[in-house]
Amino acid sequence: MTRIKPMLFNTDMVKAILDGRKTVTRRICKDGNDFAVPDMDFYDADKRTYAVHNYANREHTEKLSIEERTCPICPGDILYVRETWAEWTGGYLYKAWNSPFAQPGRMPVMTWRPSIHMPREAARIWLKVKDVRAEQLCSMKLDDFLSEGVCIRPEAFNDPESARMQAENEFIELWNSTISKGQQNLYGWTANPWVWAIEFEQCERPKR
Questions:
Q1: What is the pTM of this model?
Q2: Distance (Å, rounded) from C-alpha 38 to C-alpha 87?
Q3: Is 166 helix (H, G, I), strand (E, B) or coil?
Q4: What is the mean pLDDT of residues 178-194?
Q5: Please, which residues have CB within 8 angstroms of residue 164's CB and are 6 or more apart in sequence?
């Protein structure tokens, strides 16, 4: 069953989506830890569930059980982007927009509202989920960083390792900026948490 859900993005990532650079987003998967491995190979589209393998040790050599868990975001779901916004003359403006005025810098002084408070009717960007997978954050490769919308210097691509390192550093800074200081040891880059890798494409606003 297709569901419509909100998802928060910061201003830079909204611009990356609009530019077509960002086609994947990663979100914390709290079902995964040292002793529990999420597994989308057991995904049941009708029930919207997947499996979690529970182990007795960190080496995953002694399995205790397999649990069925509800998948929060599923292939086919529709996401509407919550972004920094403001009401303006009967409509809405968005911080990630280019200025609608002729001269740069002429954007009126706005009282921007946090993305978390953005109502569904104000959403201008709609995304259809193409694929969802569970993985550990540090398993990312160059293409993964780029699909997250990070930018690196063009000349870096002359050296694949340099390109990967630059893209990784950019993503680490972005990722850690979304994690509170008190949770860096759980969900920061060096903690290598389990995440949902959610692949999407832009789509039209649903009629319903």
A1: 0.91
A2: 41
A3: helix
A4: 96
A5: 141, 142, 145
